[in-house]
Amino acid sequence: MKKHIKQTLLSLLCGGLLIHSAAAYELGRVNIELSGEIVAYSCGVEVSQANKKVELGRWALKNFRAAGDKTQSMPFSFQLQNCPPSSAVTFVFSGKKDKQDSSLLAINEGASAAGFVAVEILDSQKNRLPVETKSPKIAMDINGNGQAQFYANYIATGNRPTPGIADADATFMITYD
């Protein structure tokens, strides 16, 4: 009887090891791919400025009597660092495009959203910078630092804008020479 119990226990243990081995084998088939890149420069925006909120203000509907009417442009900038010395960078702003004018940033949709109004992004010379378009080149100093200056304002995209919340979201990508 003892011999039979020992054989049964031995069989169970061996079976358990086989099951454990099979599980380990399956786990061993999972590949982990590690990738990256070592670069000479990591040109980018100072960390404290990565998530920026630009206040465009509160405007009366009477400021938007016709398509193309704009509010005052509000400045915003980014401090750039760790760029190649004496190089140039460009910005590309991305986001949901306005339905009436795809060069503009659409207002976030919602029940209380303003209608027929969009956000216009301007470069440092206050020229329109269409969504998904490279900005003019921005020069970096001999230490690889610089400042990118932009502006933003509301613009009517129709002749009958409606009041409401007028928030928009954008992301940006920096490219350097």
UniProtKB/TrEMBL annotation:
Endpoints of the signal sequence: 1-24
Top-level division of the source organism's lineage: Bacteria
Stretches assigned to coiled coil: none
Stretches assigned to the Fimbrial-type adhesion domain: 32-177
Entry keyword set: Signal
Any one Gene Ontology cellular component term annotated for this protein: pilus
Pfam family, one: Fimbrial
InterPro entries: Adhesion_dom_fimbrial (IPR000259), Adhesion_dom_fimbrial_sf (IPR036937), Adhesion_dom_sf (IPR008966), Bact_Fimbrial_Adh_Pro (IPR050263)
An individual GO BP term: cell adhesion involved in single-species biofilm formation
NCBIfam families, A to Z: PRK09934.1
Name assigned to this protein: Fimbriae assembly protein
Organism: Morganella morganii (Proteus morganii)
